[in-house]
C-alpha cells in the first residue's frame, strides 16, 4: 500500500527521467557532484564524481581534464547519439582521508567548461543488500483471487530466474522473498507433488526464502494467542522440510507489538525486518530507518534483532512506475525492458549512502527492498542489473538477499556494536480497524472464545483434540487483523463491484472464524449423556471466580431456583429477557461445576437496588445525569471519592469532519429501569445521538460483585463524510498514570514506548488502568480496542498526513480515556462508512493502588466469562493438576497436538520474579513438566516448582506418568 501515494517521496529521492534526445537541446553548462561510490577503473577502485550536463544533453564528444589531491588525469568522453545527462568520472589516487577539492575542465565542440566540488572521505567497502519481493496486500489492487494468482506465479518465475542466474557471481544470484506464508500455503495446496518438490528444492538452495509471518499483520491488534499462532504455519512447514524459519518480514505497516520480542524464544523468530510505508499515516516512524537494535523483551531475557529499512516502495519509485503495472493491466506478467541497468539504483543509492555517512552511520551495510509495487509481478531483470552494477562499481557492492541472510550477515559482522533497546513500537495503522467496528468486535470475541474452547478441551481431558480445526479458526481470526481491509478505491468508489467483493472477502475472515469457534466451543462442551434441567459452568481461567452466569430460557424452563451439585442454593433472578441469571460462587480454576434448575422461587442473599437514576449493589453507587444519561457518580463503598468527573462517564461524542471544534453530544435521555433486582439491577438509557438512528446504553450492577457493566449499542447511519465516534470516560483520579495491556504483558503509556512511535491513540488487549498512588480504575472492553489518552488527540487526522505536525511526540498523563469506537479517516483501503447496530461493552472496577496482577485477572475475567452449557457427562470435571502462582496467569491452555498432556503459556504479571508450583490433583500421580515451544518440542525439564523472571513468559508441557 499504496503506490499512487508515492509522488512526494519520489520527488525527494529521484531524478527526473530523461526525455528523448531529439526533444532536448545541447547542454550549456556543467556541474560536478561528489558521490560515495568507487568505480572499477584500470584494475583499481577509484573514487567517483559525476559530471552533470545542464541546459540540455551532451551529444558530441570531448576531452576531460581532472585535477585532484595533487594528481592530474585526462579522459575522453565519447559522442552519444542519444545524449548524456551525466558522466561518471574516476578520480586519480587513493581514497582521501580529509576533504579535498576536485577541479575539472571539459572541452567539447570548441567550447571549454569547468566545475569544482568538495570530495569528503567515504567508505570503500559499502555492501547494499537488495531484497526482491512483491508486497503482499490481501486485496487492495484487485480482488483477492487475482492477487493470489500473481504471488503464486511469482514463485514459479523466481525459480526460473534463480536457475538462469545460478552461474552468476554469488552476489547476483537471484533469491525471492515470499513475504507472507499465506501465499506459500495456498501455493503448496494447489500444487501437485512434483511442483511441491521443486518448490522445496528451491527453498533448500536458498532461491526461495520463507519468513515466518502468515501475513503483514497489525500485531498490536492481535491477542497474545494470535500473535503466537501467526508464525505456526510457517515454522511448521519449515520444520517438516528441514528448513529453519527464524525471521519475519513486515511490509507497509508502521510499528509492531513489543510482544514479538517477548515470545521470540518460544517461536524461534529472532530476526525482524520492517519496511514500512513511505509516508501514509506513519507519524514519525521514519526516524527509525537504518537504526538497527536488539529489541529486548519486557523481561529482559529475550531479544529480537530489528531493522527498519527504507520504505518498501523504493523499487516502485525507481522502476515500477515506469513499466506496465497492476492499475493498467488486469493480469500482469513479469516485464522485460531489455535494459536492466536502466531505472536502477544510480543515482539514488549514492545519495542515500551519502546521507547515512553524514549521519555517522556506524555500519558498512544496509538493505533496500525491491518491489515493483503492491501485488506486482517479479522484476525478472534484477540479477542482470546487479551483475552489471558490481562489474562497474567497486563500492557499493550489491548483494541479492533474503531478510534472513541480511540480518544474519549483519549480526555476524556487528554483534558487539548493536544497541539493546526496550519498549513498545506503538503501531500507527490500527486506527483503520474502527472503520468496521461490528466485525472487529466479532473477531475479538471469537478469539477469546476460541481460547476458552481449547481450555475446556484441556480441563475435561477430552480425547481427539481437533488441532487442525483450531488452526483453521485461528488463521481466519488472524487474517482479519491482516493490514489490507479493502480496495485502493474503497473510499473514493465504495460502490465499485471490486470494492464490495474485496470487503466481503475480508469480512468473511471474521465471520468464518466466529462460526468455526462457536462450533469448536460446542464440541468442547459436548458429552455422551445429557442431564435435563441442569447446566454445566466452566471456568476457563487460572483464578477462582465468583461471577454471574446467564442461562437461556430454553435451558431454564424448570423454574427459578438454582442449586449447585451439593444442593446449596445459588442467588438467582429471572431477567426481563426471559433468561435466568444466577451467581456462581468461588468456582475453582480450570474446572466445571453442575447446577440444577428447579421449580421454586429464586434464592436471595445480597440485594442490589435501583431507585430513580441511581443503582447500588452493596459495593458501588452509580448515578446517571437525567438529561444526558452519563454517569455522574461512581463511588465505591468505604470511600467518599466520586471517581466520575463533572462531564460524566460513558459520554457519547460525535466529531463531524473529525473536528473537535464541531463536537456533538447525545441528548434528550429517556431513562427507564430494565432489571429491578434483587440480584441484577440495570438502567436503560435511550438518547438521540448524532450520526446514528439511536443510541441505547444499559448500566448494570450485580449484588455483591465488584464490577460495573456498561452495554452501549449504536445503530449507526451510513455517513461518507469524515467522522469519529467516541465514548469518553473522564475519571476523577488526580495525578494518574495510564497503563494498558498489550500481547504478553502491559506497559505504562509514554514511559514504556519507543521514541517516534504512535502517541495519538493506543490499542488495548484487555484493559486500561488509570491510577495514582492511592486509588484508580481498571477499564476493560472486549469489543473496542482503540483508546485515546485525553480528549481527541486524533482530531483532524484525516487522509495521508504526510509529515503532519498533528502527530504527537509525547503523551501527557491524564485520567481521561476516550474509547475510539468508529472512524472513517483513511483515504484508501479502509471502509468509507458503516451502518447498522454495533455493541460496545465496558467494565469498570475501582481499586486502591495499582496492582498489575489484579488488573490482568480482571481483564481476563471480562474477556473470558464463565461458560454455561447444557449438562453432559460427570457433574464435576477439572484439570489434572493444580497451579499455585499468585503473580502468574495462564494466557492460553490447550491439549497437546500429539495427545500427550496439555500446553500452557504462562505470564508473570509482576515486576519481580515469581514462583510457580504445579501439583497433581490426584494422589499417587507424578507430573512431568518441560519447557516447550511453538511446535510443542520439549526442552529442559522443570521441577514441580520453578521461577519465572519478572514480566517473563514461558510455554510448558505437563503430562503424567
Question: What this model shows, in words?
Answer:
This protein starts with 6 loop residues before the first helix and ends with a strand. Helix content is 20%, strand content 34%. A hairpin with a 2-residue loop joins β1 (29-41) and β2. The chain is elongated. α13 runs antiparallel to α14 and α14 (467-480) runs antiparallel to α15 (497-525). By secondary structure, it is α+β, with helices and mostly antiparallel strands. Strands 32-33-34-35-44-41-40-37-38 form a 9-stranded antiparallel beta sheet.
Oligomer: single chain
Number of strands: 54
Query: What general form does the structure show?
Result: elongated
Task: Summarize the amount of helix as a percent range.
Answer: 10-25%
Largest sheet, spatial ordering of strands: 32-33-34-35-44-41-40-37-38
Nutshell version of this structure?
This protein is an alpha+beta fold.
Task: Give the secondary structure arrangement, pairings included.
Layout: H1 7-13, E1 29-41, E2 44-54, E3 62-68, E4 71-77, E5 86-90, E6 100-108, E7 111-119, E8 127-132, H2 144-164, E9 176-177, H3 181-189, H4 193-204, E10 208-209, H5 224-229, H6 232-240, E11 247-252, H7 259-262, H8 264-267, E12 271-276, E13 293-296, E14 303-308, H9 314-318, H10 348-358, E15 365-370, H11 382-392, E16 393-395, E17 397-400, H12 403-414, E18 420-422, H13 437-460, H14 467-480, H15 497-525, E19 530-539, E20 545-551, E21 561-564, E22 569-570, E23 572-574, E24 580-587, E25 591-598, E26 609-611, E27 614-616, E28 620-624, E29 631-636, E30 651-656, E31 664-665, E32 667-676, E33 680-688, E34 692-702, E35 708-716, E36 723-730, E37 737-742, E38 745-748, E39 762-763, E40 768-771, E41 776-780, E42 786-789, E43 816-823, E44 836-847, H16 852-863, E45 867-872, E46 876-878, E47 881-884, E48 888-895, E49 902-908, E50 914-920, E51 927-931, E52 941-942, E53 945-948, E54 953-960
Parallel strand pairs: 8-15, 8-17, 9-10, 11-12, 12-14, 13-18
Antiparallel strand pairs: 1-2, 1-16, 2-5, 3-4, 3-6, 6-7, 13-14, 19-25, 19-45, 20-24, 21-22, 21-25, 23-24, 25-46, 26-27, 27-28, 28-29, 30-31, 30-36, 32-33, 33-34, 34-35, 35-44, 36-43, 37-38, 37-40, 39-42, 40-41, 41-44, 42-43, 47-50, 48-49, 49-54, 50-53, 51-52, 51-54
Amino acid at each position: 500500500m499504496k503506490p499512487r501515494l508515492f509522488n512526494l517521496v519520489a520527488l525527494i529521492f529521484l531524478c527526473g527521467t530523461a526525455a528523448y534526445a531529439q526533444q532536448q537541446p545541447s547542454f550549456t553548462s556543467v556541474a560536478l557532484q561528489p558521490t560515495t561510490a568507487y568505480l572499477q577503473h584500470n584494475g583499481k577502485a577509484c573514487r567517483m564524481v559525476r559530471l552533470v550536463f545542464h541546459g540540455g544533453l551532451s551529444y558530441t564528444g570531448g576531452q576531460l581534464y581532472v585535477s585532484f589531491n595533487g594528481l592530474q588525469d585526462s579522459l575522453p568522453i565519447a559522442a552519444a547519439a542519444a545524449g548524456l545527462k551525466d558522466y561518471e568520472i574516476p578520480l586519480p589516487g587513493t581514497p582521501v582521508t580529509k576533504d579535498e577539492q576536485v577541479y575539472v575542465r571539459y572541452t567539447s565542440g570548441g567550447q571549454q567548461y569547468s566545475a569544482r566540488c568538495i570530495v569528503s572521505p567515504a567508505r570503500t567497502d559499502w555492501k547494499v543488500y537488495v531484497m526482491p519481493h512483491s508486497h503482499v496486500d490481501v486485496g487492495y489492487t484487485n480482488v483477492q483471487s487475482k492477487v493470489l494468482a500473481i504471488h503464486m506465479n511469482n514463485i514459479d518465475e523466481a525459480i526460473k530466474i534463480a536457475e538462469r542466474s545460478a552461474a552468476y557471481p554469488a552476489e547476483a544470484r537471484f533469491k525471492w522473498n515470499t513475504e507472507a506464508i499465506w501465499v506459500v500455503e495456498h501455493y503448496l495446496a494447489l500444487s501437485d507433488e512434483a511442483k511441491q518438490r521443486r518448490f522445496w528444492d528451491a527453498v533448500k538452495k536458498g532461491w526461495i526464502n520463507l519468513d515466518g509471518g502468515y501475513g503483514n499483520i497489525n500485531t498490536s491488534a492481535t491477542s497474545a494467542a494470535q500473535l503466537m499462532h501467526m508464525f505456526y504455519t510457517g515454522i511448521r512447514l519449515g520444520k517438516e522440510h528441514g528448513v529453519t524459519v527464524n525471521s519475519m518480514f513486515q511490509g507497509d505497516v508502521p510499528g509492531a507489538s513489543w510482544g514479538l520480542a517477548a515470545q521470540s524464544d518460544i517461536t524461534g523468530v529472532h530476526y525482524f525486518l520492517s519496511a514500512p510505508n513511505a509516508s501514509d499515516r506513519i507519524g514519525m516512524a521514519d526516524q527509525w530507518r537504518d537504526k538497527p537494535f536488539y529489541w529486548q523483551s519486557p523481561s529482559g531475557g529475550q531479544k529480537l534483532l530489528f531493522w527498519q529499512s527504507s520504505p518498501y516502495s523504493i523499487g516502485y519509485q525507481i522502476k515500477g512506475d515506469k513499466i506496465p503495472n497492476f492499475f493498467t493491466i488486469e493480469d500482469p506478467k513479469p516485464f522485460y525492458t531489455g535494459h536492466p541497468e536502466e531505472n536502477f539504483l544510480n543515482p539514488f543509492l549514492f545519495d542515500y549512502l551519502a546521507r547515512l555517512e553524514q549521519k555517522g552511520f556506524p555500519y558498512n551495510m544496509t538493505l533496500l527492498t525491491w518491489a515493483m509495487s503492491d501485488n506486482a509481478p517479479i522484476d525478472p531483470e534484477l540479477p542482470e542489473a546487479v551483475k552489471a552494477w558490481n562489474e562497474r562499481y567497486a563500492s557499493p557492492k550489491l548483494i541479492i538477499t533474503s531478510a534472513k541472510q541480511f540480518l544474519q550477515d549483519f549480526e555476524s559482522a556487528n554483534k558487539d556494536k548493536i544497541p539493546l533497546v526496550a519498549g513498545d513500537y506503538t503501531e500507527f495503522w490500527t486506527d483503520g480497524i474502527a472503520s468496521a467496528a461490528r466485525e472487529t468486535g466479532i473477531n475479538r470475541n471469537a478469539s477469546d472464545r476460541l481460547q476458552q474452547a481449547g481450555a475446556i478441551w484441556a480441563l475435561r481431558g477430552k480425547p481427539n483434540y481437533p488441532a487442525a480445526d483450531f488452526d483453521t479458526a485461528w488463521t481466519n481470526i488472524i487474517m482479519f487483523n491482516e493490514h489490507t481491509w479493502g480496495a485502493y478505491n474503497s473510499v473514493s468508489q465504495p460502490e465499485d463491484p471490486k470494492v464490495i467483493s474485496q470487503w466481503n472477502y475480508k469480512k468473511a475472515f471474521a465471520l468464518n472464524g466466529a462460526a468455526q469457534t462457536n462450533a469448536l466451543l460446542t464440541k468442547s462442551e459436548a458429552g455422551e449423556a445429557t442431564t435435563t434441567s441442569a447446566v454445566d459452568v466452566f471456568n476457563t481461567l487460572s483464578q477462582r471466580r465468583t461471577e454471574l452466569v446467564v442461562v437461556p430460557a430454553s435451558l431454564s424452563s424448570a423454574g427459578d431456583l438454582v442449586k449447585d451439585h451439593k444442593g446449596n442454593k445459588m442467588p438467582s433472578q429471572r431477567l426481563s429477557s426471559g433468561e435466568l441469571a444466577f451467581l456462581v460462587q468461588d468456582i475453582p480454576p480450570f474446572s466445571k461445576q453442575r447446577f440444577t434448575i428447579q421449580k421454586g422461587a429464586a434464592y436471595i442473599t445480597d440485594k442490589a437496588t435501583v431507585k430513580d437514576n441511581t443503582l447500588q449493589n452493596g459495593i458501588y453507587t452509580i448515578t446517571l445525569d437525567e438529561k444526558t444519561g452519563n454517569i455522574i457518580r461512581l463511588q465505591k463503598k468505604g470511600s467518599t471519592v466520586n471517581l466520575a468527573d463533572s462531564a460524566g462517564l460513558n459520554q457519547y461524542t460525535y466529531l463531524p469532519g473529525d473536528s473537535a471544534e464541531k463536537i456533538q453530544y447525545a441528548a434528550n435521555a429517556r431513562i427507564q429501569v430494565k432489571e429491578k433486582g434483587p440480584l441484577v439491577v440495570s438502567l436503560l438509557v435511550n438518547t438521540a445521538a448524532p450520526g446514528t438512528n439511536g443510541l441505547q446504553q444499559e448500566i448494570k450492577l450485580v449484588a455483591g460483585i465488584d464490577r460495573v457493566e456498561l452495554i452501549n449499542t449504536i445503530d449507526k447511519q451510513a455517513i461518507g463524510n469524515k467522522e469519529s465516534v467516541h465514548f469518553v470516560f473522564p475519571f476523577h483520579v488526580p495525578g494518574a498514570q495510564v497503563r494498558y495491556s498489550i500481547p504478553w504483558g502491559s506497559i505504562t503509556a509514554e514511559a514504556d514506548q519507543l521514541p517516534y512511535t504512535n502517541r495519538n491513540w493506543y490499542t488495548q488487549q484487555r484493559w486500561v488502568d488509570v491510577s495514582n498512588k492511592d486509588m484508580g480504575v481498571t477499564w476493560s472492553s472486549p469489543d473496542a480496542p482503540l483508546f485515546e489518552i485525553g480528549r481527541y488527540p486524533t482530531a483532524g487526522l484525516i487522509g495521508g498526513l504526510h509529515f503532519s505536525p498533528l502527530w504527537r511526540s509525547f503523551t501527557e498523563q491524564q485520567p481521561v480515556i476516550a474509547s475510539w469506537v468508529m472512524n472513517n479517516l483513511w483515504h484508501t483501503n479502509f471502509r468509507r462508512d458503516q451502518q447498522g447496530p454495533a455493541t460496545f461493552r465496558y467494565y469498570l472496577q475501582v481499586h486502591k493502588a495499582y496492582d498489575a496482577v489484579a488488573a490482568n485477572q480482571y481483564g481476563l475475567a471480562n474477556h473470558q466469562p464463565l461458560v454455561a452449557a447444557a449438562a453432559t457427562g460427570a457433574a464435576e470435571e477439572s484439570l489434572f493438576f493444580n497451579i499455585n502462582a499468585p503473580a502468574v496467569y495462564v494466557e492460553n491452555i490447550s491439549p497437546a497436538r500429539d495427545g500427550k498432556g496439555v500446553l500452557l503459556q504462562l505470564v508473570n504479571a509482576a515486576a519481580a520474579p515469581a514462583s510457580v508450583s504445579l501439583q497433581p490433583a490426584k494422589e499417587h500421580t507424578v507430573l512431568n513438566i518441560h519447557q516447550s515451544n511453538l511446535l510443542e518440542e520439549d526442552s529442559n525439564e522443570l521441577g514441580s516448582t520453578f521461577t519465572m523472571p519478572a514480566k517473563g513468559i514461558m510455554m510448558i508441557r505437563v503430562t503424567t506418568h
